[in-house]
Amino acid sequence: MDFTLSALPYPLDALEPYISKETLEYHHGKHHQAYLSNLYNLVKDTPFENGSLEHIILNSADSIFNNAAQVWNHSFYWDSLTPSGQGQPKGILLDAILSKWETFDLFKDNFTQLALANFGSGWTWLVLTETGLLEIINTPNAQTPFTTHSTPLLTCDVWEHAYYLDHRNLRAKYLEGFWHLANWEFASTNFIAASLLITPPL
């Protein structure tokens, strides 16, 4: 795999005032980089060295898995954010959300409450299950729905390093800002792709 840290899909100051440049400098440049560097050192001179990130995640455990999954989760998280937040999705993803939660505000409230209740460090995800159902799930530490039969559509990192510089321990304040940055175009693209695999086109 490529052990070079990919650039963010936006400038470091693009998510302000909700996520500061300083937070991204540390979160992307230090934490994400550390997981990548750790992974390189762990898999060097092993059969994993030339494997894809996805292969490593699906076939490893313990420290190798933790660092590989955190690299994958963080890359997905950066794409889940955008400086041009759309407020809410459009089209078939919005229809699916309204079918499940009745209103978009109720969906947001459920997602936020689950993220607040995610004990310790972890991630909160909007996923599409293998049976075509939308679900909001929490995963602890480095765990990821990538290893399950659910397809991640959007994620929010609730490790404290995602928000401590901006909001100290106030996770709720960070989550308020998340909704201004949620990348619904990214989520919709993931939803459409996953839906096609569940229900073949006519």
UniProtKB/TrEMBL annotation:
It is an enzyme of class 1 (oxidoreductase). Residues 3-81 form the Manganese/iron superoxide dismutase N-terminal domain. Mn(2+) binds at residues 27, 74, 157, 161. Keywords: Iron, Metal-binding, Oxidoreductase. It catalyses: 2 superoxide + 2 H(+) = H2O2 + O2. InterPro entries: Mn/Fe_SOD, Mn/Fe_SOD_BS, Mn/Fe_SOD_C, Mn/Fe_SOD_N, Mn/Fe_SOD_N_sf, SOD_C_sf. It holds the Pfam family Sod_Fe_C. GO terms for molecular function: metal ion binding; superoxide dismutase activity. The keyword Repeat does not apply. Residues 90-189 form the Manganese/iron superoxide dismutase C-terminal domain. Its EC number is 1.15.1.1. Destroys radicals which are normally produced within the cells and which are toxic to biological systems. PANTHER family: SUPEROXIDE DISMUTASE, SUPEROXIDE DISMUTASE [FE] 2, CHLOROPLASTIC. Belongs to the iron/manganese superoxide dismutase family. This is Superoxide dismutase. It comes from Sapientia aquatica.
